[in-house]
Amino acid sequence: MTARITLSAYAKLNLALYVVGLRKDGYHEIVSIVQGIDLADEVSVAKRVDKNITVETTRPDVPAGEKNIAYKAAAVMQSLFDIPYGFDISIEKTIPPESGLGGGSSDAAAVIMAINQLSSLGLGYAKMAEIGAGIGSDVPFFFSTGSALVSGRGEKVKDIKLPFGYTVIIVKPDIGISTKWAYENIKNSLTRPDLGINFAGLGRESFFRFLREGAKNSFEPVVFSRYPELRRIKERLEEVGVVHAGLAGSGSAVFAICCDSSQAYSIMKRFKEYYKDVFLCNPLAFRF
Fold it and tell me: Among 7, 20, 151, 228, which residue has the fewest nearby CB atoms (within 10 Å)?
């Protein structure tokens, strides 16, 4: 019987993110095009002989124990399926916290998947996504194929096909932005976008044109006003000729899409002179 499972918990990139209003339940309504990328944490889940749950992380700025969303994921699974034992969860962090890259949500999704396997629950991706939606708004995406149109508060996830063949640069300065703060301060200045795009028929150049001309992020005005350094990072990326640059989620990471990997490497080296957390990534399919 398997007693421990280790999974990669991949980051996500909101290629476009529109906050289009406040719902009656207090959540914001969003529409977003989201892509998984190969920047990942490593999440290890092991059975315990008692019913306790522990969470350890490798970064001091990421909470351990009950304050970590991975703990909540394990506790929900334990309660829902009356699992008679607990879990030790170890998270080797690579995705920076408070960056807008979904690291915590991805870790929670990995815990759900690991417990599903460890406890032989036989849950499908749709059921795990449903459980994830009760844990965090970003969690359901991580049960998609890796490219999705996300709406509602994040719980509505529609798999789409997006072109790959590009490289992503991520620059994360020494700034942390709480998602709660970002939503509390956002102005719903962007109307619901027209995304009647045939994603399956998008070629690489058409996709790049959409990113240049149509991809926006509703958080940029409020976040850039409070943290002008992030605006400057985006502008510097645009100046060196990337396809598209923008805020990652609600921040504080800034990303850029490059059509050429050698160009991306050169830009990464330049930014590494000023920032510790600079990553070169590729788009990724979670499953096919």
Answer: 228
Residue 87 makes CB contacts below 8 A (sequence gap 6+) with 45, 46, 47, 48, 53, 54, 74, 78, 111, 115, 118
Q: Identify the active-site residue in 72, 107, 138, 172.
A: 138
Catalytic residue (one of 12, 93, 172, 234): 12
pLDDT tens digits, residue range 150-196?
999 999 999 999 999 999 999 999 999 988 899 888 875 555 666 65
128 lies in the same domain as 265: no
- Residue 288 inside a domain? The answer is no
Top mean pLDDT of 16-20, 123-127, 173-177, 257-261 is at 123-127
Looking at the structure, do residues 155 and 174 belong to the same domain, yes or no?
no
Distance (Å, whole) CA 114 – CA 45 = 6
Q: What is the mean pLDDT of residues 267-279?
A: 96
Total length of the chain: 288
Q: Is residue 200 part of a domain?
A: yes
180 in any annotated domain: yes
Is 12 part of the annotated catalytic residue set? yes
Q: Is 72 inside a domain boundary? A: yes
* Residue 19, amino acid: V
Enter the pTM of the model: 0.94
pLDDT at 201: 67
Provide the domain limits for residue 93: 4-159
